[in-house]
């Protein structure tokens, strides 16, 4: 008897796309990291060679830059990336409490340890109403942006 209940293949985290169909500002997996494509150049090779695509991307969670070269006809993994805005309700013990459009609350996201995190804490402590942008991809979720709730 095998129990396959808790198995995660990770297959649904990405989908294949032909390298030549990728576009600047799109997303791609570079060195197993979900990246936003910031630069893309295509070079043609000799008589029977394949055109090669040189990709430069920035990791959507760490901001680290990655590069890769791939034949234009080959497939590359593209991460499913979801961007969502939440209303900030509270900041407690390094975690943000966020409210969805339907009123549901989530308290499972850490306050970023960057300048963004300090900015969020300062503005929240000053009583500002804030919307936080959360990016989700390949099993990770992180607060990546902040804006006033503009009511």
From TrEMBL:
It is found in: Cytoplasm; Endoplasmic reticulum membrane. One of its GO terms (biological process) is positive regulation of translational termination. GO terms for cellular component: endoplasmic reticulum membrane. eIF-5A seems to be the only eukaryotic protein to have a hypusine residue which is a post-translational modification of a lysine by the addition of a butylamino group. InterPro entries: IF5A-like, IF5A-like_N, IF5A_C, NA-bd_OB-fold, Rib_uL2_dom2, Trans_elong_IF5A_hypusine_site, Translation_prot_SH3-like_sf. Translation factor that promotes translation elongation and termination, particularly upon ribosome stalling at specific amino acid sequence contexts. Binds between the exit (E) and peptidyl (P) site of the ribosome and promotes rescue of stalled ribosome: specifically required for efficient translation of polyproline-containing peptides as well as other motifs that stall the ribosome. Acts as ribosome quality control (RQC) cofactor by joining the RQC complex to facilitate peptidyl transfer during CAT tailing step. This is Eukaryotic translation initiation factor 5A. It comes from Tetraodon nigroviridis.
């Amino acid at each position: 008897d095998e129990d396959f209940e808790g198995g995660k293949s990770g297959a649904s985290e990405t989908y294949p796309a032909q390298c030549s169909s990728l576009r600047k500002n799109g997303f791609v997996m570079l060195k197993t990291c979900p990246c936003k494509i910031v630069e893309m150049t295509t070079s043609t090779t000799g008589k029977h060679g394949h055109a090669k695509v040189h990709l430069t991307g920035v990791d959507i969670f760490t901001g680290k830059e990655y590069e890769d070269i791939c034949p234009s006809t080959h497939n590359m993994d593209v991460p499913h990336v979801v961007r969502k805005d939440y209303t900030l309700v509270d900041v407690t013990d390094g975690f943000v409490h966020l409210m969805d459009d339907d009123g549901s609350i989530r308290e499972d996201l850490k306050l970023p340890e960057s300048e963004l995190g300090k900015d969020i804490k300062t503005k929240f402590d000053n009583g500002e109403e804030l919307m936080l942008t959360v990016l989700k991809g390949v099993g990770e979720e992180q607060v990546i942006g902040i804006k006033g709730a503009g009511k």
